[in-house]
Amino acid sequence: MDKKALLDDIEKNVKVCQKCRLCKTAKNAVPGEGNVDSEIAFIGEAPGATEDETGRPFVGRAGKLLEVLLAQINLKRSDVWIGNVIKHRPPENRDPLPDEIAACMPHLTMQLNIIKPKIIVTLGRYAMNYFYKDGKISRDHGRAIKTESYVVFPVYHPAAALRNPEMAKALKADFLKIPEVVEKSKVPPFSTGAKALPVPDGQMGLGL
Ligand code: URA
User: Fold this and answer.
1) What pLDDT sits at residue 149?
2) Which of 51, 125, 156, 163 has the most ligand 1 atoms within 8 A of CB, as the residue to mutate?
3) Could you give all domains of the chain from N- to C-terminal order, each with its CATH number?
4) What radius of gyration, in Å, describes the C-alpha atoms of the chain?
5) Which of 20, 105, 193, 200 has a CA positioned 20 to 30 A from the CA of residue 12?
6) Strands lying side by side in the sheet with 40-44
7) Cα distance between residue 193 and residue 177, in whole Å
8) For the segment 100-120, what is each residue's pLDDT rounded down to a tens digit?
9) pTM score > 0.85 for this model?
10) How far apart are CA 194 and CA 8, in angstroms?
């Protein structure tokens, strides 16, 4: 089966998933979308109201900012893959609970195993901590981190940047580094196929 067909299968499973309570209150599942061959996957936290209405990730105000940031590095949203840690909207946009994150985890893991992006840009604290549990967004944003399976590049969440001009500045600066992180990620030992080097805290900055 090709990548698209495999991802379509996962999408079908996400749409009928009842592994946690969120499916009871959400209107639509938001499986993720985009270029299945993209070198970059952008991963957010969970759908908000507009995403819940449409079944598509990052289509509200935060999504509009994401599109502006992508344009800065000559990318359109259709060039990349965009998804979330959590596939159903938490009521009132509350933070996802640990059991909801655990229940949803297999979907994103399988999606990323199929897409095999060179880097994962995590949007906000939740997505960063999903891949790198010791991360601290104020310290680690804009620094590429080699985890066991991925090169992760944490940035502030666009929704946070809409509320805070300092974060907006940092988010813009971090986005400008993305093309260079992609190129560096292709060179061992940073390439995702390479075995992680034994660094003390499992973290390895790429000098960016
Ligand atoms: N915020 C997220 O984390 N994900 C979305 O899809 C929209 C807003």
Assistant:
1) 85
2) 51
3) 39-185 (3.40.470.10)
4) 16
5) 193
6) 33-34, 81-84, 40-44, 119-123, 151-155, 145-146
7) 22
8) 999 999 999 999 999 999 999
9) yes
10) 29
